Amino acid sequence: MASPPTFNVALPSNLLTTDASPDWLNKADNAWQLVAATMVGMQSVPGLVILYGSIVKKKWAVNSAFMALYAFAAVLVCWVGWGYRMSFGDKLLPFWGTPGVALDQKYLLGPAFAGLFPTATMVFFQFVFAAITLILIAGALLGRMNFHAWMLFVPLWLTFSYTIGAYSVWSLNGFLTKKGIIDYSGGYVIHLSSGVAGFTAAYWVGPRATKDRERFPPNNILLMLAGAGMLWMGWTGFNGGDPYVASIDASLAVLNTHVCAATSLLVWLCLDIIFFGKPSVIGAVQGMITGLVCITPAAGVVQGWAAIIMGVLSGSIPWYTMMVVHKKVTFLKQVDDTMAVFHTHAVAGTLGGILSGLFAEPKLNRLFYGDNPIYIGLFYGLQMGKTKEGFHQIGIQLVGILFIITLNVIVTSLICLLVRLVVPLRLSEEDMQAGDDAIHGEEAYALWGDGEKFENSKHNSVYDVEEYPPKRGGEVEMA
């Protein structure tokens, strides 16, 4: 997603010719970009809609799924109205673009700022990334946020947080872009942002009902796996579409993505078996997600062996922060992060950003960025005698992490404080006891009365409580 070099194209004087395939258009690139964008969109709708709707208690299935569906629709309207040009348009500030509408055909049918396809394709491609970021934030807030507050939060956060991060890191004029930050496909702008913003918003919204925090079993694990599978396979478009061209680098990015995710899943699974004695399905999904998140900022600029190392680390470090650190740090325990997005996205995204600064390979950097000498991983800089460049790379990666964290803590807090002046951020205790029926007047299933009869099943997962650290097996003690 970082901005590769623009293409020098001889443009016709009138872009709106009768030719539907002008000379500057590469049909293959355009087709791949539209397919990749659709794959990313399907990660959200229906992927995360299904995942959220099935991983929560039955009484929260409709509300959780609908938070994702609403965000997808609301982001699109805001995106074409002003968000896209604030993220990729003319410079207003070093970290922000000038607001503007992205609906005029003269604008949409001209070439994009990068890639041999029309701006309309770029607007759609960038939209699905913006949408999934808000949906990931929703994961931290499931089971208690006032839906009307969520309706206000989504456009405000998109406007005042996402656009700043996107412009700074991905726009050709962004200050972090010019410094040489590596964020191939959204480790910073999407995952670190959503993890920090979700955790911050969870702090302000407050916790779920006590009963829900103590017992929060999935209502349908098989359906949850279907949503997780769509999320995993959709990542082919997530990382494969970011060179803006159907290139060999796109192919490498796709393979690295799946290798890292599979490795991370297996490492997480092994840790669960070693310390808790059971291969948890929900734990495996968490490991899959952390692997996908970790490889995202590096997908097309690291070698396959590096993807394996990143998978090992993404399957173990976020596991450790979730299972050990989380239970030892009072503040982390106090914040009710329903889907543990702090660990799966903020921690894994930070890890991916740092590892990108270590493992980014010069030849692969040139495939993506062109002949720009500032992009070089620290390990290669030390090996090639370019120590200064290598330390610059890891330095700018750390600066980017600090910027995204600071931005999202401040802006998300201000938005939550503003929204609660209009409507309560948190549902009433009565509504939280009733769930979907009180909020939407609808229920997901009409099978067994209140749907709570099987909560005490012996088949309950070690992950079906609070923010997922298990109760069985005692505390995990690690040096």
From TrEMBL:
Gene3D superfamilies (alphabetical): Ammonium transporter AmtB like domains (1.10.3430.10)
Bilayer-crossing residues are 31-53, 65-84, 123-142, 149-168, 188-206, 218-238, 250-269, 281-299, 305-326, 338-360, 394-423
Q: Which family does it belong to?
A: Belongs to the ammonia transporter channel (TC 1.A.11.2) family.
Q: Which residues form the Ammonium transporter AmtB-like domain?
A: 31-445
Give the record's membrane topology: Multi-pass membrane protein
Origin species, per record, is Cinnamomum micranthum f. kanehirae
Give an example GO molecular function.
Answer: ammonium channel activity
| Keywords noted in UniProt | Ammonia transport, Membrane, Transmembrane, Transmembrane helix, Transport
Q: Which domain of life is it from?
A: Eukaryota
UniProt-recorded name of the protein: Ammonium transporter
Which cell locations does it reside in?
A: Cell membrane; Membrane
Question: Which Pfam families did the record assign?
Answer: Ammonium_transp (PF00909)
- Provide one Gene Ontology cellular component: plasma membrane
